[in-house]
Amino acid sequence: MGKQREDQEHGAEPARTALTADRARAMTAGLRDAIDDVLRSVAVLAARVRDAHAARVWLPLGYSSWESYCRAEFGISRAQAYRLLDVARALAAIHDAVTAGPDLSRTRDTGPGAAAALDYGLSQRALIAVSSRTDAVAEIITRRLAALAHSGLQALDETTVHAVVRQAVRDVRTAPPPAPAEPPADPAVASLRAVVDDLAASTHAIGELMLELAPGYLTDTEAADRIDHFCDDIGIELDHGLAARRYALTGDRRALAGTVL
User: Fold this and answer.
1) Cα 155–156–158 angle (5° rounding)?
2) Do 52 and 70 touch, CB atoms closer than 8 A?
3) Closest to 181 measured CA to CA, from 169, 195, 170, 197
4) C-alpha distances in angstroms, 82 versus 46, 132, 138, 172, 234?
5) Which of 8, 120, 134, 235 is the most exposed place for a label (fewest CB within 10 A)?
6) CA distances (Å), 118 to each of 111, 225, 227, in order?
7) How far apart are CA 122 and CA 126, in angstroms?
8) What is the pLDDT of residues 110-123, one digit of tens each?
9) What is the CA radius of gyration of the chain?
10) pLDDT tens for residues 7-33?
11) For the segment 195-236, what is each residue's pLDDT rounded down to a tens digit?
12) Percentage helix, strand, coil, to 5, in the chain?
């Protein structure tokens, strides 16, 4: 009875027949394909929106603006019309960061492969969330791909690049707001904050080294195997090395709580 009520509260229909493991796997594969199709459609939509806006497609059709064109042709609001542009611009900035390196150039914005090249498995919500911080996302992607290429420990194949892109977007989305720029009035507090800032800066630099050895898409357990010896060599605890790596990934000092700070 309790289980049935729980299913009803979450909107799930009670199972009518018991599923076999094979049938469950087939249903899961179908669901995964559907999710992949949705994410891929974001890339296609973004590419077409960007091309249409760049060509000022509304003018030959007699509309005065992108907004009026979208309202008349697609029945969407002004906010939706400009959210489409946010998605397109964010994805274009990410793609430019990925293709900036000589070893990472690929089909850019022409030909049938253009939309496929933009498919990093990102949702519209994620792209809209970082649309005002594309510089930060691009900087993180560029830095981490360069570190991977320099380390030579991981081939920069499509799977790796996509993982780096998704992690960078996730990091920017979850990063806390910057600390207040005004220094504290109490000189002792200001001095202590300066010491903490210096420690955080040096730890971030160590974290960047850790990311060269253990890229951000690895779990802490997987990363530990790669950085253990390095931590011994530089004289820090493994937990400190993992915390520094998390800090370099996120920029959030809370990653250092209980270890470095």
Assistant:
1) 120
2) no
3) 197
4) 12, 13, 21, 21, 50
5) 235
6) 13, 33, 33
7) 6
8) 443 444 446 787 87
9) 23
10) 555 555 555 677 788 888 888 888 877
11) 887 788 788 878 878 887 888 777 888 888 888 888 888 888
12) 70, 0, 30
The pair of structure tokens assigned to 107 is 């089909």
Q: Cα separation of 139 and 136, whole Å? A: 5
Those residues whose C-beta lies under 8 Å from the C-beta of residue 78, and which sit 6 or more positions away, are: 67, 70, 71
What amino acid occupies position 41?
Answer: S
Instruction: Encode pLDDT of 67-117 as tens digits.
Output: 899 999 988 888 888 888 888 888 889 988 988 865 554 434 444 344 444
Residue that wins the pLDDT comparison between 152 and 170 = 170
Q: Which residues contact 253 (CB under 8 A, 6 or more apart)?
A: 200, 247, 261
Helix (H, G, I), strand (E, B) or coil at 55: coil
**CB–CB of 236/253 below 8 Å?**
no
N- to C-terminal Cα separation, the chain: 49
DSSP assignment string, 102-118: TTT----SSSTTHHHHT
Can you state the angle between helices 238-250 and 158-174, rounded to 10 degrees? 80
* pTM summary value: 0.53
Strands (DSSP E) contained in the chain are none
CA distance 163 to 3: 37
Q: CA-to-CA distance for 151 and 148, rounded, in angstroms?
A: 5
CA distance 153 to 168: 19
